[in-house]
Amino acid sequence: MRERRICGVDFDNTIVTYDELLAAIAHERGLLDSVIPATKRMIRDKIRRLPDGEIEWQKCQALLYGSRIREARLSDGVSAFFQLCRAHEIPVYIISHKSEYSRYDATGTNLRDAAVGWMAAHNFFGPGGFGLTRDVVYFAGTRQEKTARLTALRCTDFIDDLEETFLEESFPANVRRILYEPGRESPPPAGVKLMKSWQEISDYFFGGN
Ligand SMILES: [Mg+2]
Prior knowledge:
alpha/beta, 6-stranded parallel beta sheet, two-stranded antiparallel ribbon, binds magnesium ion
């Protein structure tokens, strides 16, 4: 019998891409000389090296995930992947490690509500869009809670941009670990499949070429 797949997907930097928005925010705040094309990781490392860099980074994150999230974009290829899952009747869960509020956010935005609002604005819910429902979206306060959730939902595959997710001790051994990290040059950790685009992920799930 063919295995019935259940797909879990991370949200930040996996479904949603903040690279351009972070570059814009960092430039506005005087943390970057110019808006240069760079990945979130490169900009993060640059900000962290500044005086008070860790706090500046937290403030940038509060803006990215909160009051400015509307400006973030859907990662290329996510839409096609979700539509293929829908066509193949593969259940999809979005499982995000995200606090409700940031202590560095002066606007007091609920970050989980902001994420759901962004999904709604990008046609995630309802029959006209990706056909997901609000109840397939889960938020976890810790990495352990995230792992517990994907285990409870019986995910067979999990897609995440952070290798730390897969290295979590409680991460279930039988769940396929798909690392979505477009800019990565180094090999992934053992047992983790590196995918540099959503197109590659779609091909992996549904057979490409
Ligand atoms: Mg992420």
